[in-house]
C-alpha cells in the first residue's frame, strides 16, 4: 500500500486546473489524482495535454462534492494509507504534503487534519473555508480561528500552532483512508457543503481526533464552484446543517437545537424579504421543507463498536451568531 494520494475533484474547472495545478505538481511528492465529475468543458483535454503526470478518474455524471469523492475514492480503496482531499482552486507550498503526512504518521490517534488555509487573493488574510481551524458552537454553527461568521483576520502568526479542532476543511484535508471508508465517506445526500463537518463529527463520535496544523500553509481562492453568497449555497448550508445535527445529536438535544435554529433562521428569512432578497428567503424555507422530507428516511449515526471513547466537541461557544452580531466579538480571541 502506498502512503498517500492527493485527490482533486473537478467539474468544469478548466481554468482552475490551469491556474492551480502547476503548484500542486511542482510542490508535491505523492501521486496526484483528479476525479472529474463529467465535465463538459475542456478539463480532460487540459489534463491530458498539460499534466500527463496526473492520473484521472472519470465519473459518468456530476455527482456533487460528496458523492463525487465517494465514488472516486472507492476506486482507490486499499491502494493508499492516506488521502489528501484538495480543492481545485488551492495553491500549495513547498513540502506541504510531506509535512501533513509526516505529522499524521507520528499521531496515529488522529483521523484527519487540515493546514492553515489563507486567502489566495489576499495572502496575508485567512480564508473563509477552514482558516485557522474549525469549531462548532452548541447549536451546530461552524466557526474558525481567523474567521468568525464573515469577518476574516489577518495572518500575524497567531495561529501557527497545532491544536485539536472539531472539523477539518474540505478545501484541504488529509484523512486516513481506512477511517474514510469505514464511515462510508461523505453523506451523498448533502451533495455539497457541510459534508466534511458531518464526516469529522462522525469521526469524533467514533473516537478519532481531528487536528489543525498551523506550520503548513495553503492558499484558497474560494467560491470557485459556487459563489459564497448565492441562494443555492445558503439552501445547502441550512438543509445540510439540520441533517448533520439530526444524525449526530440525541433526540432531545436535536429538538432543543432545532427550536433555536428554526427561530433564528426564519427571522433571517423575514429580513431577506424586507430587504428585497426573496430568493434568499426562499432558500431558507425550502431548506427546512426538504429537510423535513429527508428526515423521514434518515438514520441516526451509530458509531462502529470499538474501545475508543467519543472525542468531545472542542468549541466552547454557546451561540457564535449572538457573540458576533449582538456582543460585537469579531475575532476568535474575543470569544
Architecture overview:
With 335 residues, this protein is α/β, with parallel strands linked by helices. It has a domain at 2-220: Spore Coat Polysaccharide Biosynthesis Protein SpsA, Chain A (Alpha-Beta Complex), CATH 3.90.550. Helices cover 39% and strands 20% of the residues. The protein has ten helices and 13 strands. It has helices at 14-27, 43-50, 64-76, 96-106, 177-182, 195-205, 231-248, 251-274, 278-295, 320-325; strands at 2-10, 31-36, 55-58, 80-86, 90-91, 110-119, 134-136, 142-144, 147-148, 151-152, 162-164, 172-176, 209-220. Strands 1, 2, 3, 4, 5, 6, 11, 12 and 13 form a nine-stranded mixed beta sheet that branches. A hairpin with a 2-residue loop joins strand 9 (147-148) and strand 10 (151-152). Helix 7 (231-248) runs antiparallel to helix 8, helix 7 runs parallel beside helix 9 and helix 8 packs antiparallel against helix 9. The longest helix has 24 residues, at 251-274. The protein starts with a strand and ends in a 10-residue tail after the last helix. The model has no long low-confidence stretch (mean pLDDT 94). Residues 6-122 form the Glycosyltransferase 2-like domain. Pfam families: Glycos_transf_2. InterPro entries: Glyco_trans_2-like (IPR001173), Nucleotide-diphossugar_trans (IPR029044). This is Glycosyltransferase family 2 protein. Belongs to the glycosyltransferase 2 family.
